[in-house]
Amino acid sequence: MPKLLINGGRSLQGQVTVQGAKNSALPLLAATVLCKGTSYIHNCPKLSDVYASINILKYLGCKCTFVNNSVSVDTSTLVCRRIPDRLMLKMRSSVIFLGAILGRCGNAVISSPGGCELGPRPIDLHISALRRMGVIVKEKHGFIEFDAPNGLMGAEINLSFASVGATENIILAAVTASGTTVIHNAAKEPEICDLADFLNSCGARVNGVGSDTITIYGVNKLKCTSHTVISDRIVAATYMAATAITGGEIVLNDAIASHLTAVNSVFEEAGCIVKCIGKKIHFKAPKRLSSVPKIRTTIHPGFPTDAGPLILAMLTLSCGTSIIIENIFENRFRYVDELKRLGANIKVEGRVAVVEGVRSLSSASCKCTDLRGGAALVIAGLAANGTTIIDDIYHIKRGYEKIDYNLSLLGADVKEI
Ligand code: UD1
C-alpha cells in the first residue's frame, strides 16, 4: 500500500496552481448523460473519484477518454440504467448519477449508498424530491428502483436541509422534465453554479443558482458542449493551511477568492495575510499563528465542513484555544486521534473540538481516516519535527491530484513510497 513520507519543518515558498474542483467534476460527468453525443469536460482533476465516475459512465455504455485533464464522454451508446454495487460502493457521490439517468431514460436502479467514513449519509431528501416529480421508488434486495412511468414532471420542492447532492440530483432530473421545478432552500455551493452553467450552455433553463430558490424550466433535450471545471476551493484552502502552519509565503494560481471568503477570514483571524488579485491569492503566514475562538461549519457561503480538518490541523500550532463546531456531518472528527499522535492537544465532545495550541508537533506514523482528515495529517506532518509516515493515502487520492509533487514544488520534503 502506498504511503506518504514527510520530513517536516520546511516552510512552504513559491507558486502552485489549484486543480479543478472534485465536487464540480463529479456532477458534471454525471450530467453528460443528459446530452446525446460527445461532451468535453476540461480542467478535470486526475483523482480516484473521477476515475470511479468514468467507470460508471463506461458501465452505462458511454465511451470516455481522459487525456491531459480533459474528459470526453460520448453518451450516444448509453444502454444501461443500473449502477452495480461494486461501482456505487467505490464512491458515495455515485448517487449523483441518479437524476441524470432518470432524466435520460425515465428509470434507474442503484444500490443503497449506505454509510461512509463521515457517518450515515442518507438520501431521503433525494428520494422524496424525486417522488414529488412523479418517480415511483421501490427498495428490493439492497437495490433501489426508480421509475417515472408518466415521465418526470416539474414540481415545487421544499428541502428541509440545503443538501448539495439533493439539489444537484433534482436539477439533473428537472432539466428535461415536463413543466417547471422550483427548489426552495436549495444549496448555494459554487459547484451547484458550475453544474448549472454547464447545463445552461447545453440548452437547459436553470435560474437562480447561488440563491435559496432555484427554478428549472424543463426543455425537450440538451445539446453537447465543452466546459471547464472551476478551481477547487478546498484544495486552495489546503495549500494555504499548509503554508500557514509552516510559516511560509505562497502564491496560488487559478484560485477563486469569492468562493473562499469564509475560509480566508479565518486565516486572517489566525494572523495570516491574504491578498486576492484577480485569479491569484498571495498568502503569508505570521511568525506565530493566533488561535481562532470559534469556527462553526455550515452551508455556503458560511465556513465549509470540508475545510474544518485543514484549519483544525493548522490551529494545533497556534497560540491559545480554538473551538470548531461541526454542524454538517456527525462523525467528522475521526482524524483527531491520528493528529494527537503527532502531539496535538485536541479534545472532542460530540460535534465540538477544542484545540489547545502547542509549541511544536513531533513526527509519528498515522493513518488517514477520510479524505480531508488525511489532508489534515499532511498539514500537521509538514510542520512536525522528524519524519511522519501517513498510511491509507487512498483517501487523499480521492481529492488531491499529485499532492506530493505540488508540495515538493513549494519546497516541502514529501514522497510517496
Ligand atoms: C457534498 C460534498 C461534500 C461536502 C458536503 C457538504 C460532493 C461530491 N460532496 O456532499 O464534500 O462535505 O456536500 O458541503 O459534492 N443529508 C440527509 N439526507 C439527504 C441528503 C443529505 O440527511 O438526503 C444530510 C447528510 O447526511 C449530511 C448533510 O445532509 O449530514 C449534508 O449532506 P449534503 O449537503 O447532501 O452533502 P453531499 O452532497 O453528500
pLDDT averaged over residues: 96
Cα radius of gyration in angstroms: 21 Å
Structural class: alpha+beta
The tally of domains stands at 2
- The number of distinct helices, counting runs of at least 4 residues, comes to 14
Q: Which CATH architecture of the largest domain would you pick?
A: Alpha-beta prism
CATH superfamily of the largest domain: Enolpyruvate transferase domain
Q: Which stretches are low in confidence, meaning pLDDT under 50 for 5 or more residues running?
A: none
Query: How far is the N terminus from the C terminus?
Result: 9 Å
Give the spatial strand order of the biggest sheet: 24-25-1-26
Helix content: 25-40%
Q: Give the overall silhouette.
A: elongated
Write a structural description:
This protein has 14 helices and 26 strands. The protein has a 4-stranded mixed β-sheet. The model has no long low-confidence stretch (mean pLDDT 96). The longest helix is centred in the middle third of the chain and has 13 residues, at 233-245. The termini are close together. It is elongated, with a radius of gyration of 21 Å. Helix 6 links the parallel strand 12 and strand 13 (180-184). With 417 residues, the chain is an alpha+beta fold. The structure holds uridine-diphosphate-N-acetylglucosamine (UD1). The site of uridine-diphosphate-N-acetylglucosamine has 20 residues, from helix 1, helix 5 and helix 6. Residues 23, 26, 93, 121-126, 161, 163-166, 191, 304-306, 328-329 line the site of uridine-diphosphate-N-acetylglucosamine (UD1).
